[in-house]
Please model this.
Amino acid sequence: MSTLKSLISSSGTGSPPNNPPHFAPPVLEHGELFISQLPNILLYLGPRLGLAGPEDDENAVYQVNQLALTALDGFLNVAHDTHHPLALGDYYENQKEAAMARAKDYRENRLPKFLGYFERVLKSEASKGGEWLYGGQLTYADIVLYQCLDGVRFAFPKAIERVKASGEFEGVWALYDRVRETEGVKAYLQSERRLVYGNGIWRYYQELDVE
Model:
């Protein structure tokens, strides 16, 4: 923790060779390289872990990154704004009325729009079969989508159950279950490394969920 604090310290000036200071975690250290920003870390690790699409597809890394960024937009960034729609530095209780309006719009409009997008991705030629988002194999975009959907499921449990019951996005939820059962993800979910949801990006407020 002390190392992380030093990396994001307001007085930090970076480290050699050519590592600029970091604004916020997460920060990845690999050899002499230090990089931050989650999408940037994923873009770096994906090819090295075989999670960036088929090796013979020179465009795969960009397509997978695009899908991961879209998942982060729709199920992380926009979802987070439902409980802090006015000011990130202010308490939820001070913007509760605006949060209820934002959450309603998210549940009724933004959530199904993003789910529909990924359902179309799974039906596209790029998916190569409909099991995974791109190239017929597991990529980090699938894992990002799983994690984001799991967070939204925590924040809006009743809304998600209603969406699932509609049967509109069966491909997306099948992918969710498929990722959860992959060897590495399953082991992580059963380990002490798996953090519980709480007062973070995805938060549960009963009044923001459907009645």
Notes: The beta strands are 27-30, 33-36. The CA atoms of residues 4 and 131 lie 38 Å apart. The longest strand covers residues 27-30. The mean pLDDT is 95.
